[in-house]
Design brief:
The chain is α+β, with helices and mostly antiparallel strands. Helices cover about 60% and strands about 5% of the residues. The chain has two domains: about 5-115, Arc Repressor Mutant, subunit A; about 120-185, Helix Hairpins (Orthogonal Bundle). The relative contact order is 0.10.
Length: about 190
C-alpha cells in the first residue's frame, strides 16, 4: 500500500530553512521533564485504547515538536525507540489519518507532521463505524427468535449507536461552525 507524500504546509517552511536545513532540532536540547510526562501520558492513553504505546508517544511528540516536521531519525532519538518501531508505527498513524509523510525538495529523508484536520476527519470515520455497529445490531435483532434478554441486549446496542449516528453529525457541524467563526475573528499573522 502506498502512502501519500505531501508538500510541507506554508506554516512549516520557515522552520526548514534554518541553519542545517532542519531548523532547531530536538536532538540538540534535552527534553524538559514536562514534555516527557506529556509524551508518556499520551502513550499510556493510547495503550488503554488498545493501541501501541509508541503510537501515542509519536503523536504526542509531533503535537508539541518545534519544528512541526520531524524526521524518522529525530523520532528515534527523541523517543529513544528503534528505527523499526518508528517505521511501523508511523505507517499505522498515517493509515489512521493522524499524521502525514512530507517530502522536502532536495532532502531524501521522510518527515512527519500532524495531518491538518486530522481530528475532524477521525470524527467522520467514527460515524462510519457507528453506522456499521447499528446495522450489525439490526441484523442481530432479525436473527433472534424469542429470547427477550438477547433482544434487550441487541436493542441497547442498536439504540445507542442510532442515537450517536443521529446526533454526532449535528455536533460535528456545530464544531465546524465554531472553527469557521474562530478563524474569521483571528487577526492575520
Amino acid at each position: 500500500m502506498f502512502t501519500e507524500q505531501t508538500e510541507p504546509t506554508e506554516s512549516v517552511l520557515p522552520y526548514v530553512k534554518k541553519s542545517n536545513g532542519l531548523g532547531e532540532s530536538p536532538l540538540t536540547r534535552s527534553q524538559p521533564s514536562e514534555q516527557s510526562h506529556f509524551i508518556e501520558e499520551m502513550g499510556l492513553m493510547f495503550e488503554q485504547l488498545g493501541m501501541p504505546r509508541m503510537a501515542g508517544r509519536i503523536l504526542a511528540w509531533l503535537l508539541i515538536a518545534n519544528p512541526p516536521l520531524q524526521s524518522s531519525g529525530e523520532l528515534v532519538e527523541v523517543l529513544q525507540a528503534s528505527k523499526g518501531s518508528i517505521s511501523t508505527i508511523t505507517r499505522m498513524l498515517i493509515q489512521i489519518g493522524l499524521i502525514e509523510r512530507v517530502a522536502l525538495p532536495g532532502d531524501r529523508r521522510d518527515y512527519f507532521q500532524i495531518k491538518p484536520n486530522a481530528w475532524s476527519q477521525m470524527t467522520q470515520q467514527r460515524l462510519t463505524q457507528i453506522a456499521a455497529f447499528r446495522e450489525l445490531a439490526d441484523r442481530g435483532l432479525s436473527l433472534v427468535e424469542g429470547g427477550p434478554e438477547a433482544q434487550r441486549r441487541l436493542r441497547e446496542m442498536r439504540d445507542i449507536h442510532a442515537f450517536w449516528e443521529r446526533e454526532l453529525p449535528r455536533l460535528h457541524e456545530r464544531w465546524e461552525e465554531e472553527q469557521r467563526e474562530r478563524e474569521h475573528s483571528r487577526p492575520p499573522i
